Amino acid sequence: MDIETQSEIPSMINSDPDLNRDQFLSFFLDGEEYGVDILRVQEIKCWENATEIPNAPEYIKGVINLRGTIVPIVDLRLRFGLEPVEYTKTTVVIVLKVISAERERTVGFVVDAVSEVYNIENGLLQPPPEMGDSLDLDFVKGLTAINNNMVVLLDVDRLIEDEAASSSHELH
Amino acid sequence: MSIDMSQFHQVFFEESFEGLDVMETGLMELDLGEADVEEINTIFRAAHSIKGGAGTFGFDDIASFTHVMETLLDEMRSGSRDVTREAVDLLLTSVDCLREMLSAVDAGDAIDEERKNSIQAKLEVMLANGSGTQPEKQGSNSGGTGNDHPTAGVWKIRFAPHPHLFRTGNDPVRMFRELEHLGELNTTVDTSKLPPFDELDPEESCFEWELELRGECSEDDIIEVFEWVDEDCDLSISRIEDKSEQNTDPENDPSISKGSTGVTEEKPEETQKIQQKLPATKKKASKKTSNENSSIRVGIDKIDALINMVGELVITQSMLSQISEKFMLEDIERLRDGIDQLERNTRELQENVMQIRMLPISFSFNRFPRLVRDLASKLGKNIELKMSGEQTELDKTVMEKIGDPLVHLVRNSLDHGIEMPEVRKAAGKPETGVLSLNAYHESGSIVIEISDDGAGLNTEKILQKAREKGLVGEEEELPDEKIHELIFAPGFSTADQVSDVSGRGVGMDVVMKNIRDLGGVVEIKSEKGKGSTFTIRLPLTLAILDGQLIRVGRHIYIIPLVSIIESIQIEEENCNSIAGKAELYKLREEYIPVVRLHKLFNVEPDSKKLSNGILVVAESEGQKVGVFVDDLLAQQQVVIKSLETNYQKVDGISGATILGDGTVAMILDLPGLVDLSKKDSGRSSHKEVLMAEEAVA
Questions:
Q1: Does the annotation count B382 as an active-site position?
Q2: Interface predicted TM-score of the whole assembly (ipTM), two decimals
Q3: Catalytic: B527?
Q4: What distance in Å separates the CA atoms of residue A110 and residue B163, rounded to the nearest whole number?
Q5: Are the beta carbons of A107 and B646 separated by less than 8 Å?
Q6: Starting from the edge strand earliest in sequence, which strands make up the sheet with B623-629, in order?
Q7: How many C-beta atoms surround the C-beta of residue B617 within 10 A?
Q8: pTM of this structure
Q9: Residues 6+ apart with CB under 8 A from B658
Q10: B649 to chain A: closest CA residue
Q11: CB A95 within 8 Å of CB A27
Q12: CA distance B597 to chain A (A)
């Protein structure tokens, strides 16, 4: 249902038929390709040392100074429970605008490498499969195939919603 | 016509609230009996602006209500009504009611009709009763009693605006709507001057109107509607014979409740050439304004100063970039000069930007004359309020948060401090008690003093109560200052009975907490029989704080300098522990709990051994704690940034800041840390205890 509303609104606003599609920025994480809505991307920057937040969950790497605002950094590998890797020169932080609980936040996500920008037509989005309790796929908006490779499109708002819930859980 | 008016609502509300403050202050200063016309004028103008605005935006309830107030004020202004205490009291109540109505509309809520109607009725009764100098108004139509007095009748108004009317920002529709408040209005538009369509200039007014106003009003009332356009139009007003009595027009019943009933309903109009339909702008403010974007008014001189400074900054910047273009070693002196200049510019700029948030404390003090007046009459005491230093400036946020504690302290002084007139007389003091409010700047903070010449704090009574409540041991003796501090203990009240004024749920402990939350302190000086003084010391701003940088391992944290008492090198023989868990440090004669930052924040310190580190002794909510850190670094001013904007609240951390090298450092929240360490010692596993013991040993 979410997919329907999210994808239909832009197509109604834009009369240009070419815009009946959404643009996604894709990135790699442990060999798999993921995508996020490009309109949510504020900037892409190199990894820099973050100041740790006491007692925060492990996947919160800390906060950085982004031109005067304090922005938390989430390691997406750790967030997904993947093996951590050492940060290299190609390690990048995608700074995204996340809207949850009626407020807008700016959060940086550490990924392995940024890949490309795809135009994906609304019809080609496949809803995430039911994986049972073993895997929580709330943050997956849909799946799509680009050149026979699967790209997982993420719902960025769900990423942080979960994060807030689980981190507060951790504190108690 | 179809401009979206809602975008101006916020401005209207802000201006109206300011106007109400002006009215309130003005009313408080009115001398009973003989009023200064200029003062009444000020009040009148404020009311008039509110009415005009409310009419424009279609808040008809407010407009009609203000109109009645305005009529009363107008009579006072013209001298046809004496300024009586009842009238001033009623007007003050009306100001309150108006304020409530405005807040309700602002928040999108319904207006409390009942209250509004009852006050409006009182106002109307007062108007109807006249004040002696004004002839009683009769139901029968006496025809030409003169134009000054409202009588039912029919007025013919010819209104021919000059073509440039719109450019002066006036709108005939608004004026007609206001006329409608006076009575039944028929409008006929004369379009004869309308040029052919291709010559039409939409910015010019080409219509003329014939208006027929049937209602109870005076010529002055009508002229007043056109007050702002009288130089931009040809206006003729004439009274024609009233035939309404034969018409048995129910609308024409000259009862005084006319104004309130005839406002919102659309009246059926008969045959007119073109009917001027007044748009029903009953649109409600759509947004809830619980956490509205408040705005601030800044003097133009402050802005000019900023512009100057930015100009200098630009010059410095261009000078520096010139040097860097072809840099030679001998330029190093110029470079250093440039950087010095840059530093100076930055500091000045910072100070001036902070100035923008500064407001004189009179914004907060202004409510007290009213409060003291109301309370004094309620309590039956004679109280004179003296205020000084109202122009002392402080940060807007601090001011907003200090308002309630101040009110509480003032109420407290009035209720408990200043005695009843008889008691005062018996004690050889003047019957009128004096409450003074004073504000001044002192070494980077603002000091607010609230003092009274009342009975002073009753130390025996306080001590007795404290013993009853078990706050103080039976045999324990305390110095006076310690006893005074007891009144800030939660749930402590010496009031024999809970009165309407004080002794209720909100106690002095809340006052203390609010002030502490702002980083301030309260001191009490009191002498029995002579009075007491509460001194509040607050930081000037919440945006910047003086911080002590400390280090634990590779992490840098900041402790607010105000809360630090001292920092000491730890001596091993003074370290103690209880049951191997709680650690205490003996500082002179006191045992202070030790908070290990590395343990609470789960970070790796240089050393876990207490004697290798430094203990920062700080005060948190009246209690001393020792924070164990590896090292003390610099002291500097830091700009406070919120962690919650993009993240969430973190226990033990009050915010973050950006250090000189661009990295982020956390600012410690001492009360939070203490709570954290309590929880921590509660769940502390056996293993950790063993480790801690090892470290101590």
A1: no
A2: 0.78
A3: no
A4: 65
A5: yes
A6: B564-569, B614-620, B623-629, B590-596, B582-587, B575-578
A7: 19
A8: 0.54
A9: A65, A68, A70, B639, B641, B664, B665
A10: A168
A11: no
A12: 10
CATH number, position B480: 3.30.565.10
Q: Does B278 reside within a domain?
A: no
Show the domain range for A65. 2-171
Instruction: Kindly state whether residues B382 and B485 are assigned to the same domain.
Output: yes
- pLDDT means over runs of 10, chain B (697 residues): 67 84 81 73 85 82 85 81 80 87 82 82 80 41 42 76 75 78 79 78 78 76 74 77 46 42 40 38 36 69 88 90 85 87 87 82 85 85 88 84 86 84 86 89 83 83 78 74 76 55 59 80 84 86 84 92 88 82 84 89 86 87 86 88 84 88 89 83 50 47
Residues 6+ apart with CB under 8 A from B674: B593, B595, B620, B621, B623, B625
Give the closest of B602, B646, B648 to A71, CB-based.
Answer: B646
Most A-contacting residue of B648, B659, B677 (CB-CB within 10 A), to test interface = B648
| One domain for residues B124 and B193 | no
- Residue at A121: amino acid letter: E
Q: Reduce the DSSP state of residue B372 to 3 states and report it.
A: helix
Beta-strand pair A32-37/A149-154: parallel
CB contact under 8 A, B647 and A53: yes
Give the C-alpha separation, B284 to B108, whole Å: 6
The DSSP code for B414 is I
Helix then strand then coil, % of chain A, to nearest 5:
25, 45, 30
The bridge status of strand B575-578 relative to strand B582-587 is: antiparallel
Token duo for residue B450 = 């609230």
Please give the residue range of the domain that contains residue B580: 544-696
Total domains in chain A come to: 1
CA-based nearest residue in chain B for residue A54: B601
Cβ neighbours of B601 in A, within 8 Å: 54-55
